[in-house]
Amino acid sequence: MKNATLYKTDEIVSRTNLEFHFDQVPKYWFGEDPFKTRFFDALGLSFPDGEKFFIQSVKAFRDKVTDPKLLNDISAFIKQEAQHGIIHNLMNENLKKQNIPVKRLMGVLKNSLNYNKSLEFNLAVTVAYEHVTALLAQCLFEDRLVFAEANPRMQALWIWHSIEEMEHRAVAFNVMKQVGNVDEEMRVIAFRKTFSLIFDSALGVANIMLRCDGFSNNERKLMLDKGKDWLFGPKGMMSTKMPLILDSLKEDFNPSHYPIINHYDVWVKAIEETNDPIYAANKFWEAGL
Questions:
Q1: Is residue 13 part of a domain?
Q2: Rounded distance, CA 127 to CA 254, Å?
Q3: Within 10 A of 231 (CB to CB), how many other CB atoms are there?
Q4: Residue 132 domain boundaries
Q5: Is the residue at 7 inside a domain?
Q6: Which of 23, 284, 12 is nearest to 158 (CA)?
Q7: Angle between helices 34-62 and 119-141 (to 10 degrees)
């Protein structure tokens, strides 16, 4: 998918009644690699409560918004995020069958969001989360090799979620700028805190899940060391996006300046025709060959 065309979009669409058939997904769905699988499973565990947090953070300022387009975007943002929580909950139900303590781990992740901060800080945290998840989408799908070993149903899940994250990537930011009363210092602090929180939490929960899978301390240490290099090493998945991450700390940062994912139009056409995320993901994937 390298060198593919990038597209911009102003349309935020909530797709419902999507079927992923998670019961057909193998335990280690990411190239039979326990760490990669559990890392993304850990991210997935964070989404149901995370999406609720993002919705609440934006809704707290909705009554102050007067721009009709932004009000429409907020409604679409809420619908998309709610749907993400619903679908990831279905995947998380699958994890319970693998003896993963889903409820306890979701509680750990929920507590890490810290709902006791100010409304302004929570909104800034939401802006940061939205940007990092949009960058994660680019990491996964701009270079086809990164996610090539994932099970097709999980590819479909992450393609769908990533595309919708990129569709609404600027909504929370626009709310923050128009009515959020968030100064630049608070925004940068929230971003630094959030970036660390996302990955520290996911790595910690992944480690617990691997322990539940029966891996020893030494085995898990080796997996985590290798996994961190895969993420943050010289050629790591996130390392390749470090310039974009650092851009987020600049005063002129605006997520709407970033183009949407490669072959977005291919996926949209396929999902509109069939409402089948597996089919749409296949068409999207083929477009990058």
A1: no
A2: 10
A3: 18
A4: 22-287
A5: no
A6: 284
A7: 140
Residue 270 lies in a domain: yes
User: Which amino acid is located at 251 in the chain?
Assistant: E
Whole-Å CA distances, 181 to 61, 78, 176, 178, 184 = 10, 21, 7, 8, 10
Mutual orientation of helices 102-113 and 34-62 as an angle, nearest 10°?
A: 50
- Confidence at residue 176, expressed as pLDDT on a 0 to 100 scale: 98
Q: According to the model, what pLDDT value does residue 270 have?
A: 97
d(CA 53, CA 123): 9
Mean pLDDT, contiguous 10-residue spans, the chain (289 residues): 43 93 96 97 94 96 97 97 96 95 91 80 94 83 82 96 92 97 94 91 96 98 97 89 85 87 90 97 86
Angstrom distance (rounded) from CA 24 to CA 94 = 10
pLDDT digits (tens, 9 = 90+) for 252-273: 999 988 878 778 999 999 999 9
Is residue 219 assigned to a domain?
yes
pLDDT per residue over 146-176, tens digit each? 888 999 999 999 999 999 999 999 999 999 9
Mention every residue, 6+ apart, whose C-beta is less than 8 A from residue 198. 43, 46, 129, 132
For residue 82, the model assigns a pLDDT of 96
Which residue, 184, 178, 193, 163, is CA-closest to 58?
Answer: 178
147: left (phi over 0), alpha (psi -120 to 50) or beta: alpha
For residues 289 and 287, give the distance between their C-alpha atoms in angstroms, rounded to a whole number. 6
Closest CA to 39 of 234, 236, 278, 281: 236
How many structural domains comprise the chain?
A: 1
